[in-house]
Amino acid sequence: MNIVVCIKQVPDTTEIKIDPKTGTLIRDGVPSIMNPDDKSGLEMALQLKDEQGAHVTVITMGPPQADLILREAYAMGVDRAIHLTDRKFAGADTLATSHALAGALRKIDFDLLITGRQAIDGDTAQVGPQIAEHLDLPQVSYLEDLKFDGDKTFTMKRHIEEGYQMLQVEAPCVVTVLSSANSPRYMSVGGIVDAYQKEVEVWGFNEIEVDEKDLGLKGSPTSVHKAFARGLKPAGELYEVETDEAVGIIIKKLKEKFILN
Amino acid sequence: MDFSLTKEQVLFQQMIKDFAEREVKPLAAEVDEQERFPIETVEKMAKIGIMGIPIPKQYGGAGGNNVMYSMAVEELSAVCATTGVIVSAHTSLCAAPIMENGTEAQKQKYLPKLASGEWIGAFGLTEPNAGTDAAGQQTTAVEDGDNYIINGSKIFITNAEFAHVYVIFAMTDKSKGTRGITAFIVEKGTPGFSIGKKEKKMGIRGSATCELIFENVVLPKENMLGKLNKGFGIAMKTLDGGRIGIAAQALGIAQGAINETVRYVKERKQFGRPISGFQNTQFQLADMNTKTEASRMLVRKAANKKDQKVPYSVDAAMCKLYAAETAMEVTNKAVQLHGGYGYTREYPVERMMRDAKITEIYEGTSEVQRMVISANMLK
Ligand SMILES: Cc1cc2nc3c(=O)[nH]c(=O)nc-3n(C[C@H](O)[C@H](O)[C@H](O)COP(=O)(O)OP(=O)(O)OC[C@H]3O[C@@H](n4cnc5c(N)ncnc54)[C@H](O)[C@@H]3O)c2cc1C
Ligand SMILES: Cc1cc2nc3c(=O)[nH]c(=O)nc-3n(C[C@H](O)[C@H](O)[C@H](O)COP(=O)(O)OP(=O)(O)OC[C@H]3O[C@@H](n4cnc5c(N)ncnc54)[C@H](O)[C@@H]3O)c2cc1C
């Protein structure tokens, strides 16, 4: 089985601040990470590899620094990494991004394409479904779980508002995965030691199959009207405990913050 | 000169910090309180290769280097010094001497199991009457045909209760003093070999520190590590390497205490403002951070020298001395800046101050490090 996973490098939004004047993200000095949904998608692929012996490829479109997440993917255990980068891709919105990725995917044989549900910076959840449309493949979004039934079919569990939907889907297909699907493995130490010995294939416009007018700024119909910062709420902590214990925890937290004495 | 980490080390640091934060930190207080060896953490570390960082790939290790290994002990110790010393004793005191002195057969037999973390390693040098004066060994190994018969005991042995392989030292020729000591590899379950009393300790309370007892233990000659009567040199060289691990542990404890303190002083208010606003707080923090960073430079330099295969004994002694004393000073200040709260087990700095003390004692006390450093200056 050949699996391709689309991964995106994003700023770690738990550490990001917003410029109060312009309403845009201050990216300076903010560490970059592999988008969490994508990492869960990658874990799903690696589990299939562990169980069935799949060949796993990761692909990212992004600036040279995005190399880091491809090395991370190698250290987690992928077999091949492709870095799409070209001036012609710059200034892409979701549509142009999905065109570029689809252009590369036309050059790769795969049974299963995995993307994250959504990137924590752009947050549109559009790229996965758009790729499926460009390639004319069936798509299942918001995946919680996936099992290979053999003979080119998968059983999938999809998150919907009221619960779950179970589907049987035939390869090749596209799925978008939620970060709640699993907890991704750590990079292995041995994998890290080898990560920079491996080759990352760098592909530009000439390596992919796409119409130039669909790329970059020209291929991006989106225009941003206004960006503003919503009031930020810090991430909460969730405890599932009995009432008495819950009261104890709340009191302890309030004391730690010196709100109670 | 280049002080920056390599690309691999940057990736490694990202992984190990994340691992320490998510897998190790949540257990630290409990492991200390209950004096419980965190075996589940060892299993998780084993799975991703942390138990075999500097062991070459051909022996089942990760094929990393000593700088990476020191970074691992640092980051683990920043959240839980018990976990840090488990890795340090296992790697530096058991796997390393087998790697450096073992026959090919011994390496094939022990290193893959140690590197994968399936087996845990320990090191037995100290005896009731042979502490700093390690040459005063009373455990004996008497030749008997194809075997050696071991009798005696060891105390204060880290990982003892949970280990599968022990590198131990015994007198093979009492008349020769340090030239009469030989190293051996002992496996758990060897008849006559047992684990004695477990110590109740001030700090690193989750690490199992016990007595080893040898009663007519029959060891085949192939369990001898290195040559006959060359054990003292092996012990000293092993401790040189081990000191980098303990220095990294001390460094981690200091950094962990700083991290806790920076968070705390911004939240705690007195006289109507956060205590971080007082210049005394700021100056204390500046000193804590400067000394900790200096420790880090010494640790990385010693580890890098070991990786370059150039002599590093003095560097190891210096980083151990400085990082240990810094850990003690920094954790003491961290408790002070936490006030009464810092003296309670509600806050981790209380544990960190107790954990810091051992780094001035084991693998050569600070006095021993000063002897090593000055002897080299005056020779
Ligand atoms: C309104 C708008 C304007 C933008 N303008 C610009 C611009 O001018 N210049 C600029 O550089 N960027 C721009 N971007 C960002 C760029 O569009 C995003 O990199 C890309 O469209 C992904 O969109 P998203 O973050 O919403 O991803 P989503 O659609 O939320 O991502 C879904 C999944 O698609 C996959 N994916 C997404 N992006 C990539 C990628 N690059 N490589 C591999 N897989 C990927 C991942 O698996 C991800 O989990 C803009 C984004 C928006 C929303
Ligand atoms: C928690 C813990 C874990 C340990 N783990 C291990 C292990 O895994 N394996 C192992 O073999 N050992 C281990 N040890 C033993 C440790 O290495 C020794 O405790 C240490 O070397 C000191 O020996 P000692 O306790 O006998 O102290 P002593 O040698 O009695 O020292 C007492 C004091 O006298 C000072 N002193 C001694 N000689 C001199 C001198 N010549 N000049 C100046 N001052 C001197 C010392 O510096 C010290 O301050 C461990 C100990 C502890 C507490």
Give a structural overview:
The complex is a heterodimer of chains A (261) and B (379). Chain A is of the alpha/beta class and 261 residues long. The mean pLDDT of chain A is 92. Chain A is 26% helix and 26% strand. In chain A, the strands form three sheets. A nine-stranded mixed beta sheet of chain A has the order 11-10-9-12-8-1-6-7-13, sandwiched between helices. The radius of gyration of chain A is 20 Å and the shape is globular. The termini of chain A are far apart. Chain A contains six helices and 13 strands. Chain B folds into three domains: 7-120, Acyl-CoA dehydrogenase/oxidase, N-terminal domain (Butyryl-Coa Dehydrogenase, subunit A, domain 1), CATH 1.10.540; 122-231, Butyryl-CoA Dehydrogenase, subunit A, domain 2 (Beta Barrel), CATH 2.40.110.10; 235-378, Up-down Bundle (Butyryl-CoA Dehydrogenase, subunit A, domain 3). Chain B has ten helices and ten strands. Chain B has a four-stranded mixed beta sheet. A four-stranded antiparallel beta sheet of chain B has the order 2-3-7-6, covered by helices on one side. Chain B has a two-stranded antiparallel sheet with strand order 9-10. In chain B, helix 1 (7-33) packs parallel to helix 3 (66-79), helix 6 (231-267) runs parallel beside helix 8 and helix 7 packs antiparallel against helix 8 (313-338). The interface between A and B is medium-sized, with 19 and 23 residues. The complex binds flavin-adenine dinucleotide (2 copies). One flavin-adenine dinucleotide is lined by residues 89, 123-126, 131-132, 156-158, 201, 209, 358, 361-363, 365, 367 of chain B.
